[in-house]
Specification:
Layout (H helix, E strand, L loop, with lengths): L5 E5 L3 H13 L3 E5 L2 H8 L6 E5 L7 H10 L8 E6 L3 H9 L4 E5 L3 H104 L5 H9 L2 H32 L8 E3 L1 H11 L1 H4 L9 E5 L6 E3 L1 H23 L4 H6 L3 E9 L2 E8 L6 H6 L17 H12 L3 E7 L3 E9 L1
Bound molecules: adenosine-5'-triphosphate and magnesium ion.
Adenosine-5'-triphosphate binds next to α10 and α13.
Length: 433
Amino acid sequence: MTEQNLILIVENNAINARILADVLEAAGYRTLATKSGEDAIDKLTEVAPDLILLAVMLPGMDGFEICDRIKSSPKTQEIPIIFITARSDAEDKVKGLNFGAVDYITKPFQQEEVLARVQVHLKLRQRTQQLKDLNDRLEQRVDERTDQLSRSLNELQAAQLKLIQQEKMSTLGQLVAGIGHEINNPLNSITGNLAHAEQYVQDLLSHLRLYHRYYPDPIAEIVQDAEEIDLPFLSTDLLQLLNTLQVAADRIAHISESLRTFSRADSENTIALQIQDGLDSTLLLLQHRIKANSHRPAIQITRDYAELPRVACYPGQLNQVFMNLLANAIDAIEESNRGKNYAEIVACPNEIRVITELKSDKVTIRIRDNGVGMSQAVQQEMFKPSFTTKPVGKGTGLGLAIAYQIIVEKHQGSLICNSAPGEGTEFTIELPL
Ligand SMILES: Nc1ncnc2c1ncn2[C@@H]1O[C@H](COP(=O)(O)OP(=O)(O)OP(=O)(O)O)[C@@H](O)[C@H]1O
Ligand SMILES: [Mg+2]
C-alpha cells in the first residue's frame, strides 16, 4: 500500500503527540503536529490532511469547538476526525461523535488499535471520495444526455413545423394558384366580349335614334311599348350597366392577379420582390374580413410605404407571413370589439397600419393593430407551435411559429413584437438587404 496520506495530530501533550507520530510514521503515513486548536485551524488553510487526530482537552479552544469549526467550513468538512479521549470518558466519546467525529481512540494508546482505526477511516474516506467522483461523473453524463435529448427534440419539432408549413404552403399555394388560373379564362372571355357588347349597344342605340329621326310618328303599338320599357331610361342605363360590369371584371382581374402574386411558386432560389406588392395582395385577399359588416364599419387600413428596393426573398413564404400577421391583427381587433356597440366602435375606430421603412442595410415592415394586445405571458409563448388563445377549431397556434421560422431561419431576419393588453400590438419584421 502506498500510504502517503497526511495525518494532522492536534494534541498539546508532547509525549502523546510523539507516540502517535512515531506509530503512524512507522506505518508509512506522513504526520503534522500542532499543539492548539488555533494552530490547527491556521494549518488547515495551508494543508489538506486526509485525517485529523484531535485531543479533547486543549488550551484555548477545546476539541469540540475545533471539530465544530472544521465541520462547518466547506473546505474542511469532508476530512474525517478521530477524537483522542481518556479511556474512562464515555461522555466525551458520545459528545465527540455528535460533533461530527467519525471515531475515537483512547489513552493510553494501543498501537494496533490506533493504526486499525486510522486505516479504516482513511479507506472509508477514499471510498466515499471515489463514490462522489463516480456520482459526479454520472450526473455529468445524465446532463449531457438530457442536453442531447432536448436538442434532438427541438430539432424534431423544428423539422415537424417545417413539414407542416411546407404542406400548408404547397396545398394553399396550389389551391390559390389554381383558382387564380381558372378564373382567368372565363374572365378574359367576359372582358373581351364586354368591349364588343358596348360597341354593339352603341350601334343599336344610334340605329334606333336614326329610326326615330325619319319616322318620328310610329304606330300606337310602338309608342306604347317604348313607354312600357321606359326607352329613354333604358338607353342611358344600359351603358352605365355595361360600365359597372367592366369595373367588376377589372376587380376580378385584380384579385386573380393578387392570388397569383400571393402564391408565386416558391422555387429553391430567392426572387427579388417589391415588398408592397406582397402586402397589397395579402390585404386584398383579406378584404372580406376588413370590409364593413352589420356590427362595425370597415377596419381602417393605413399604408405608409417607403420607397423600397426589391428585396431578395421567397415571395410565397413572405406573403404567408404577412397573411398570418394581418389575420392575427384582424382577430385581435374583432376580439376588442366584443361587448361594444356600433357607435362605440365608430368613436374609437378599428385600425391597422402597415408601415415599411428602408434602413442602411435592411428593410423593416411594421404591422400595427389597435386590437386587444397581449400580456407578457402570452408574448413569451406566442412563437411556440400550437400555442393559441383562440377557441378550439378557430386557431391552430401555428401562425406565428411559422412566421418566425420563415423570417428568422429562411430569411435571416428578425421578428419582434411590441404589445401590451389594451394597447394593441405591433410586429416588426426586419429583412437584411
Ligand atoms: N396581433 C395580435 N394581437 C393580440 N394577440 C395576438 C396577436 N397576434 C398573435 N396573438 C396571440 O398569439 C397567439 C398565437 O398566434 P398564432 O398566429 O401563432 O396562432 P393563432 O392565431 O391562435 O392560430 P392560427 O394557427 O390560426 O394562426 C394567438 O392565439 C394570440 O393569443
Ligand atoms: Mg394566427
